[in-house]
Amino acid sequence: MRNFSGFSTQKFLGKIGGREVTQLMLGSANYSVDDYPIAVIDRIEVIRGPGASIWGTNAVNGVINLVTKHSGDTQGDSVRFLVQDDGTFMGDYVHGGQVSEDSFYRVWIRDQEYAEGTLDSGRAARDDGYLRKFGFRYDKEWASDLNFYIAGGGATRRLEHVLDFSNRLFYSETLSSALVPLDYARQGSLLSSFHPLYVDPSKLPSATSFWSAPDGTISYPALLTGEISRFQRYGEMTNDSGHIVSKLDGITESDLEWSLTSAFEKTDINMGHLGFEWEQNQLDLAFDANQPIGDSHRVSFGLGYRRTNLDVQSTPLEPFDFGLTPTVDLETLTLLPSSPAILEYDQDFTEFNRLTAYVQDSIHLTEEIVLSVGTKFEENDLTGSGIQPGIRSSWNPNGSNVFWLGYSKAHRQPSLRERYTVLNPGRIWYPSGATPLNPTFGVWANKPFAGGESLDREEIDSYEMGWRNRPNENFLLELS
Question: Counting C-beta atoms within 10 Å of the first and last residue's C-beta, which end of the chain has fewer, N or C?
Answer without folding.
Answer: C
